[in-house]
Amino acid sequence: MTLPRVTILIPVHNDEKYIRKAIDSAVGQKYNGLLQVFVVDDGSTDDSWKIVNDLFESVTKENTVADLQLKSGKYKDVQLTVVKRPLAGGPSAARNTGIKLTINHTDIYAMLDSDDEFYPNKVKKCVNLMSTNPQVIGAVYADYDTHDTNTGKTIREFKEPFSRRRLVEECIVHSGSVVNKTALEAVVEETGYYDELMRTCEDYDLWMRISEKFIIAHIPESLTFVRITNESSTATVDQEIWKQNWLRVMEKLHQRNHEIQ
Fold this sequence. Notes:
Layout: E1 6-12, H1 19-27, E2 35-42, H2 48-53, E3 58-65, E4 68-75, E5 78-85, H3 91-102, E6 108-111, E7 117-118, H4 122-130, E8 137-148, E9 154-157, H5 164-169, E10 178-180, H6 181-191, H7 202-211, E11 215-228, H8 233-236, H9 239-260
Parallel strand pairs: 1-2, 1-6, 2-5, 8-11
Antiparallel strand pairs: 3-4, 4-5, 6-10, 7-11, 8-9, 8-10
Helix pairs in contact: 7-9
């Protein structure tokens, strides 16, 4: 049986301190299927772009398309592609850029933030579960470890089993989840991929839309190392914006429910 093609998608904006660790964790996955790592630099002004460019051991393609600088090649025997957006558009715009450029040669996406790391079996375990019923399972999430870079404390975040009712109450699905391309294609015609108007809660909005058509499955095991830093959105984005985006998620849900009726 041919294993699904997996793209690990990493948006980065001014994260020179951790981006290489994220990429190393991506190329270090113990997955036997076709794997590529796709990094979208969202208008960084620090050395993030230089760091990812310096990783290439061989380069197969380098060009500029529609103001996007693109470079592709090999890093540790894994296909690595990096794209530079000239201006920062936010995490949704960066992820959407990556999805649109890879959708024709990807079956499953693994979403990784630039200051986090996947444990070596993350992709393999999530893909194995999704592959048991790929027409029904739209996304897979797992537990994770949070590491506070200020205190040095690491704690396990135990996520609960999926329930649509609970998802409507709060975002129980982690942003760094594995997503079925079929699920993305099912929602894009109606509502797009990630909502580019949202600086936060954009993942919550996507999980809500996917869960209207697919099951979201949970693995009760820690598969990601998540850093809490002074640059995290929790620390840098005003609470009023968090509130506004959460309300946008609820308003979009209400609108879809009204359209169904």
